Amino acid sequence: MASPQAQARANALNAQLEGNAQTTIDEIERLYIRPVARKAHVCAVSCYDKAGNKGPMDALNACVRTCQGSHQQANNFLQNEINQFQNRVHRAMADCQDEARDLMVPGWEQDAKLTSKVETALLSCMTKAVDSHSKLLKPMKDRVSQQLKNL
Question: For the segment 94-141, what is each residue's pLDDT rounded down to a tens digit?
Fold first, then answer.
C-alpha cells in the first residue's frame, strides 16, 4: 500500500502528463484539424449547391462523402497517434511497476525503510517516464501537422 505522499506524487505526475498531452492535442485540433474540417464542410456545402433541388440523392451523398474523407483521415491519423502515445505511456508505467515489484521481498510492507525504497524507486521511474514522454509530444505534433499538410 502506497503512502499518502507517494500516492499524491503519483497522481501529480499523472496530471502533469495528461495536462501536457491535452495541451498538445488541443493545439493540433485548433491549428490543423479545424482547417481541414472547415474545408470539408465548405466542400459539402458546394455539393448541395450543385445538386440543388433536383440532383439525385446518391450523387449528393457521394459528393459529401468525398468531401468528408480528408477530415475523417485527419481525425483517424490523430487518433492513431494518440493511441500509440498512450500505449507507450502504459508500457513505461508497467515497467516502473515491475521495477518496484522486483524490490519487494517477503515482509517489505512491515519494513519502513524498504517500503520507502520501493516507493522512491517507483516514483523516480515514473518521473523519468513522464519527463521522457512529455518530450515525445512535440515530435508527435510535428508528425501530425506534416501529415495533415499533405491532405
Answer: 999 999 999 888 888 888 898 999 999 999 999 999 999 999 999 999
Helix/strand/coil for 3: coil
- Are residues 126 and 12 in contact, defined by beta-carbon separation less than 8 angstroms? no
Q: Structure pTM?
A: 0.86
CA nearest to 130, candidates 4, 1, 11 = 11
The tens digit of pLDDT for each residue in 24-79 reads: 999 999 999 999 999 999 999 999 999 888 889 999 999 999 999 999 999 999 99
Distances (CA, A) of 6 to 105, 106, 132, 134: 19, 21, 20, 21
As separate numbers, helices (DSSP H) first and strands (DSSP E) second, the chain gives: 5, 0
Contact 77, 148 (CB under 8 A): yes
